[in-house]
Amino acid sequence: MSVQERKQRERAERERLIVATARELAEQQGWDAVTTRRLAERIEYSQPVLYSHFRGKREIIGAVALEGATEMAAALRAAASAADGPRARVTALARTYLDFAERNPAVYDALFRLDGGLAFAHEDTPEPLKDGFAALLESLGEVSGDGVDPGLFTETFWAALHGLVTLTRARRLPPEDTERRVKLLVDRLPAV
Amino acid sequence: MSVQERKQRERAERERLIVATARELAEQQGWDAVTTRRLAERIEYSQPVLYSHFRGKREIIGAVALEGATEMAAALRAAASAADGPRARVTALARTYLDFAERNPAVYDALFRLDGGLAFAHEDTPEPLKDGFAALLESLGEVSGDGVDPGLFTETFWAALHGLVTLTRARRLPPEDTERRVKLLVDRLPAV
DNA sequence: CTCGAATGTCTAGCGGTGCTAGAATCGAGC
DNA sequence: GCTCGATTCTAGCACCGCTAGACATTCGAG
């Protein structure tokens, strides 16, 4: 028994190592640099070992996304709870969102740009993802205004932030004015 | 002379064929399916011929993007000029933007998601791209409101639309409520 | 009209990718 | 110490973007 338990523990540990290494490599050099060969070399195992933990690269991206979602939700909630009043919460939330995206570009990509094989906005969406959206909803829902569904408002505000993140990162928007763009969103979209 | 002219014409014609074929293939099966081998086969030349026209795949994406930018600008201007009054223009503009993105996903990706080696928001940005942004600015600039730079307002509104497009396409947002999300943006972001 | 040079296009190949079949090794339990 | 199942590895597949160098074709000069 104990032997099997130890093996299971070691296996779980190795799985964490794979995810952590993939994330680290992606943050350092971008997801394109996360090849199964490089990843295998970094964890000091051969390539096929990766496939005994994950179906393929896509699932590894998905694992990084789930990890990131939990962190992002926590960051958003921390920022929101530190702010006073609905408007201040929205401002804090937006800043924290952009800040997270900027500090963790690879995680952000895994979450919202790449295909990690995860279901979104669906009943079988993994809990961390639902919870991330919930964290947004908690602060944004209270400023959606009469006649506007809080969920829909949250989706729209989120999309606006996501647009800022992706266009800026893709060098379609100059980064200098981000703060002013966020201010515009925060000033006008909420119903108060 | 005439011989050289004919050759140049044929060469230009072949270049158009490459771009059109790449675009077609990308719209049919996504950009991942646009490999140099497949593309070469479809135009009935060998791979190296592609490299006598373009530095690489990236430049082919860039060429498709430029073509698409011109079309998009035209579509946006047509929609705007058919609408009556600033608010109606903004609504028409937003709908046309999303419609273009939905009808031409590969072109949209070439423009705003992929690396086509093009400079944006810069002095040496290619004319079609500048013109596309100008088409947005013409309608959005008039509703930016006092104290808000029209360019900045346009960027922000654009980013919101882009966020809707990409999150919906990436299956992060359910597609059904797009219309209501757009309404929210159009109702709240403009200063009137 | 011929022939060398320039131009154009091709075949073949490089080092890389994600992924996998089957051989080799390891270690637990008798 | 041995056996046998689980684990890990080596080697390889088909594909990728890209390119060197061979080959064919066309052109211009004599």
Q: What labels would you give this structure?
A:
homodimer, 192 residues, mainly alpha, Arc Repressor Mutant, subunit A, Tetracycline Repressor, domain 2, 2 domains, DNA-binding
The H/E string of chain A reads: HHHHHHHHH
Radius of gyration of chain A: 19 Å
Question: Approximately what portion of the residues of chain A adopt beta-strand conformation?
Answer: under 5%
Q: Supply the number of helical segments of chain A.
A: 9
Based on the structure given, which CATH architecture of the largest domain in chain A is correct? Orthogonal Bundle
Number of domains of chain A: 2
Quote the average pLDDT of chain A: 96
Unreliable stretches of chain A, pLDDT < 50, 5 or more residues? Answer: none
Give your account of this protein's structure:
The structure is a homodimer of 192-residue chains. Chain A is mainly α and 192 residues long. Chain A folds into two domains: 1-53, Orthogonal Bundle (Arc Repressor Mutant, subunit A); 64-188, Tetracycline Repressor, domain 2. Chain A is 73% helix and 0% strand. The first copy, chain A, has helices spanning 2-29, 36-43, 47-53, 57-82, 86-103, 105-112, 127-140, 150-169, 178-188. In chain A, helix 2 packs across helix 3 and helix 5 (86-103) crosses helix 6. The radius of gyration of chain A is 19 Å and the shape is elongated. The mean pLDDT of chain A is 96. Chains A and B meet through helix 8 and helix 9 of A and helix 8 and helix 9 of B. Chain A binds a DNA duplex (30 and 30 nucleotides) through residues 3, 7, 35-37, 45-52, 56-57.
